[in-house]
Known about the structure:
Chain A is an all-alpha fold. Chain A contains 16 helices and no strands.
Amino acid sequence: xxDARDLQEIQEKIYPPMVEGVYDYGTVTxxxxxxxxxxxxxxxxxxxxxxxxxxxxxxxxxVTLLFVQxxxxxxxxxxxxxxxxxxxxxxxxxxxxAGTLISAILLLLNQKWRTSINRFAEAMTLFAVACxxxxxxxxxxxxxxxxxxxxxxxxxxxWQNFRSPLMWDVFAVTTYATISLLFWYVGLxxxxxxxxxxxxxxxxxxxxxxxxxxxxxxxxHWHRYEIAYLLLAGLSTPLVLSVHxxxxxxxxxxxxxxxxxxxxxxxxxxGAIFAGFAMVLILCIPLRVWYNMKDLITDTHxxxxxxxxxxxxxxxxxxxxxxxxxxxxxxxxxxxYMMYNRMFSGPYWWSYWLLILCNGISxxxxxxxxxxxxxxxxxxxxxxxxxxxxxxxFVIIVTSLHRDFLPGSWGMFAPTIFDWSMYIGTIGxxxxxxxxxxxxxPVISIFxxxxxxxxxxxxxxxxxxxxxxxxxxxx
Amino acid sequence: MAQLFHRGANNIAxxxxxxxxxxxxxxxxxxxxxxxxSYLTGRYLEKQQPVQFSHKHHVGDDGIDCRYCHTSVETxxxxxxxxxxxxxxxxxxxxxxxxxxxxxxxxxxxxxxIKWERVHDLPGYAYFNHSIHVAKGVGCSTCHGQIDNMPxxxxxxxxxxxxxxxxxxxxxxxxxxxxxxxxxQWKDSNLTAEQRLKLKADYKIRSKExxxxxxTCHR
Lengths: 475, 219
């Protein structure tokens, strides 16, 4: 008996429990579904949603002005033709990556700690991709012709330029948006059915009923569901790597000093996951406090995410080091000049060192338990990292472009108020969507959390387990 | 508790998936057709002109050469719209007192050009030059259709980019000897494939790559 208990202790140390409260199937379902169904909408929700919604109007106003006036309202002009729109596009699309990593790769790797964070991480992905998609479409200048980017039998008898990474980007991002939506929605179906069964209001019942596609939770339903979910996870997994690799090709395939580097794909992917985990932390640290869910989104979750952030952050820092090394080792005067200009002599030197401070220095605190285990510090570091990742794209795009090959073509970039209002507007839009999601759909996957409960443990060695249930996994 | 949905709801749900796919297909097909429709391109739509001028009568019945009126077709980008003076060359004698020619006479008297309605209206971003097409063996009727059969001129083709490119990608299918440029009855089948290829070589028509380069038409 003693041995068995020791074993259990060791196991708990290696695999800490991912649900800390004492729950059974019923109470955990109550806990999560009540946020949507029973509890009154908290006043804080109205404040949060209200602010986000008002900020989102900045986006609406800017886009309206953009349609009337054209892209001249922004600060980008030759030689810096890609400025805020592309910086923000890459920033948002990167943020989405953590959601896909959590839902797909961690599922395939059988990581239990994905379970209570995957749902809203996926929602975050979806909303981030929505924000990201706006930018390149609006950057084209004539967004009503954005469908020209898709290959279809058009009256111009022309194909897109398939050799252009910008074209690959169109496919990468549309695939990513589609798969993310499907994955999120398929994962929601059993939980929407739970809400349908529990809703008292007739209209909610019908709405959830329609969305749950007649889910009854029969064995056959579960069987097919598991296969579909696994297949979608398999489809999403390469996307974690491919989407941001292709985004990096937008830069690295062109022959511009500062962009044309082989390190770009892995360095971008790591940066994306880094930024994404920062955003997941920014979202879940307040969420678990406001909705009193610290026993479902535990400190262990936060610590794990902090570790992922540290690991991916270090890869990104390695990327910065390699960029500088490549420039020096290439012995090409343009490469060397670009790097020297970026770091020391150029007018944007401060953005480079601010980036190093935000992405390189700040994460070093995560080596220490004290910071890793403090939600407050994790939150602060996550915000700093989000700023840092934005700066990274600023540095890559603006400092590489502003010094053209001929000194006569050199120029400077300064954002206008509409560059800022559009960027801030998308942040408002993103948070408004998050608030709506939290209010209307189960923010944590109910049925997956149920599989983590003691009730779900398969009885494998006698009566040692106090909570051993009926020996069934899942429902 | 009563069931939320009717028994048949499952079938409706399943059917809706199939219908959604079908509808998307139909909508896509409809779009491809609508995008090429006369409604959007103006193809085959006759335009009302300020004078009831009939190309069928002047070209088909009287046999007047295209260049009698469209004088600059061989030398410049625009084929040219004739001044009223050209009309009056004949019409100061012929039908000189006809009521429906009054706008022509008025124009001549007052020295004010007739405001013809444009039938073939290319967008400004497409550079088009009549003279090079004539010089390389593209006949009038290849683009404009059988003008000698049109009482009121209409647009024979869509003027869409795919239509331009259909020739620029293989000009040999559409060219004819220089002597036949103004022949309204010319058929592309009058020449064999070999003859057309030889013609293409004789005219020194450039490669497909050059003819379909962006800046050939968008300058």
